[in-house]
Design goal:
Length: 55
């Protein structure tokens, strides 16, 4: 089941989807570092990551 993360910082429209939660975490970390010049805790990534079913 794929994992989907939507960034909730400001008006950010970043969204990532992957079948691997590890990959989602890696991509989210890279996004936060590059776009928001900051860091994000694993707990925050997990809280904002949804499991989705493909239509
Ligand atoms: Zn963002």
């Amino acid at each position: 089941m794929p994992y989907q993360f939507s960034c909730s910082k400001g008006n950010c429209q970043f969204m990532v989807r992957s079948s691997s939660s590890d990959e989602v975490e890696r991509l989210v970390r890279a996004h936060v570092r590059m776009t928001h010049n900051g860091r994000i805790a694993v707990a925050d990534i997990e809280r904002e990551t949804d499991r989705i079913e493909l239509a």
